């Protein structure tokens, strides 16, 4: 009997690793163990597997004992050896990651960089090695960065939701939507007309709309009309529709309608299964130029209750906005003398002072000068400045979602989120 068969496969657990020169073929056993070394001949499914082990011996594994087998580069075996023995320090993980880079072991390098970031979440080179980008003070993946800016990856490209909607609409869909425009326009005209019967018919027809293809026409003709009743009808029709198509319109009205009751109705019109689709729109609104929109978006995100928005809310604690106001213009009126020695307002070409005022000036009886009042009143000019605004509603939503309060300290909130992601904290 060949003594090579004397070692039962089930008794093989994990063989000791050899040095740098070892081969790296791997056999995983059904009992949970593994054998590493070099295959002798071909590895054929359902056939005994012969291997030269890392200790220099040869072993034959019965087919029924082998779960799987794979050929690996020797560098992979060395990586496994080194990764199990290095100290858990930033320096050690970085050194091994650089070695992996030199050996073109991409996935192993990423593994080490991820381990490094668990120890030091601010390590710039590790983030760059993982192709992370710094977005508004926070390191994140490129996909996360683009999502934070309102973009979605679609067939390998980053596009806005509106662009995706246009791309995905077929000719038939566009035609179906266009067919609603003349009808909605007509019925709106009836409602606003003076014929009472037509008014009732127009309202009845608008209230009967339940086709999502009508949404673009409804938005164009009803979303911003002065008549509150028509805007309420618009929200009612959207709220009655399911799916994701009405979501964008409901979100816009919840953020931008001038009437607070309509804004609230639009948010409440989002069904539970639609709110997930609404989150990216509200996150995008956290960077809006209008500060009230930022705070309304924060309130909505707090109401939805998805704690994954904590980083986006953190970035919106303090936002920068441009404000404009009328500032008074200071007319600097100068007193000068003409060529004949007389005093004047504005120098050589100015207007002569009244005789009594000029006499007082000449005789030194006005030691503090003269204040000339502009008869046209105070002049103003439009001035724009950029200011940083602390958003109370953003902070309130963060407190609601996390049950924590770090005030407007973005760094403290970021540290809290990093601790949560690393498993050292929880929401």
TrEMBL record:
It holds the Pfam family HEAT_2. InterPro entries: ARM-like, ARM-type_fold. This is HEAT repeat domain-containing protein. It comes from Caulifigura coniformis. The lineage of its organism: Bacteria, Pseudomonadati, Planctomycetota, Planctomycetia, Planctomycetales.
């Amino acid at each position: 009997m060949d003594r090579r068969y004397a070692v039962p496969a089930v008794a093989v657990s994990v063989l000791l690793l050899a040095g740098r020169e070892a081969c790296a073929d791997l056999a995983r056993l059904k009992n949970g163990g593994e054998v590493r070394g070099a295959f002798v001949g071909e590895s054929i499914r359902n056939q005994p597997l012969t291997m030269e082990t890392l200790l220099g011996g040869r072993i034959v594994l019965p087919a029924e004992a082998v779960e799987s087998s794979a050929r690996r580069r020797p560098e992979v075996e060395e990586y496994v050896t080194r990764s199990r023995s290095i100290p858990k320090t930033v320096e050690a993980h970085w050194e091994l990651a650089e070695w992996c880079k030199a050996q073109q072991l991409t996935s192993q390098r990423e593994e080490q960089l991820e381990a490094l970031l668990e120890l030091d979440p601010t390590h710039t080179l590790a983030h760059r090695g993982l192709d992370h980008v710094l977005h508004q003070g926070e390191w994140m993946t490129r996909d996360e960065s683009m999502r934070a800016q309102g973009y979605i990856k679609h067939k390998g490209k980053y596009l806005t939701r509106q662009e995706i909607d246009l791309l995905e609409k077929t000719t038939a869909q566009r035609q179906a939507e266009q067919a609603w425009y003349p009808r909605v326009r007509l019925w709106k005209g009836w409602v606003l007309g003076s014929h009472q019967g037509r008014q009732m018919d127009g309202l009845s027809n608008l209230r009967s709309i339940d086709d999502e293809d009508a949404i673009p026409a409804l938005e164009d003709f009803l979303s911003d009309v002065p008549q509150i009743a028509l805007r309420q009808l618009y929200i009612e029709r959207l709220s009655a529709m399911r799916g994701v198509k009405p979501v964008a319109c409901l979100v816009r009205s919840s953020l931008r309608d001038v009437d607070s009751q309509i804004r609230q109705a639009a948010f409440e019109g989002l069904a539970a299964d639609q709110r997930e689709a609404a989150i990216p729109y509200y996150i995008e609104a956290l960077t809006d130029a209008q500060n009230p929109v930022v705070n309304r978006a924060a309130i909505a995100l707090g109401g939805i209750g998805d704690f994954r928005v904590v980083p986006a809310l953190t970035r919106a604690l303090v936002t920068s906005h441009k404000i404009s106001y009328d500032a008074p213009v200071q007319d600097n009126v100068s007193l000068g003398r003409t060529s004949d020695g007389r005093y004047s307002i504005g120098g050589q070409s100015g207007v002569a002072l009244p005789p009594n005022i000029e006499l007082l000036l000449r005789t030194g009886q006005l030691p503090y000068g003269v204040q000339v009042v502009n008869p046209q009143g105070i002049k103003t000019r439009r001035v724009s400045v950029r200011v940083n605004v602390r958003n109370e509603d953003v902070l309130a939503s963060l407190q609601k979602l996390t049950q924590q309060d770090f005030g407007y300290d973005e760094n403290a909130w970021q540290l809290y989120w990093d601790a949560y992601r690393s498993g050292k904290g929880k929401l």
